[in-house]
Amino acid sequence: MPYIARKDRKQYQEILNSLAEIIPQDRMLRPGHMNYIVSLLIEKVYGKELRYADHNEVMGFLNCIALEFYRRKTAPYEDLKIGEEGDLTDL
Question: What is the C-alpha to C-alpha distance for residues 81 and 83, in angstroms, rounded to an integer?
């Protein structure tokens, strides 16, 4: 996960908790809301006219978020399900 100093994490917790409470739980709506929030945050932080280095930076951390989420959350879930349901090689 994103590793920032513990002292820096606290400043985000209250606003993130409030934001998480208003994001729809409906699986048909939630992805659009999440995309909107992340996209708007990127625009607010980087501005509307990004330079090449900004594009690289944004693509880099978005890719790292996806890879880290897979490594820390999805892969263990898949391993659990393989243990419960069997692997593809068991067909």
Answer: 5
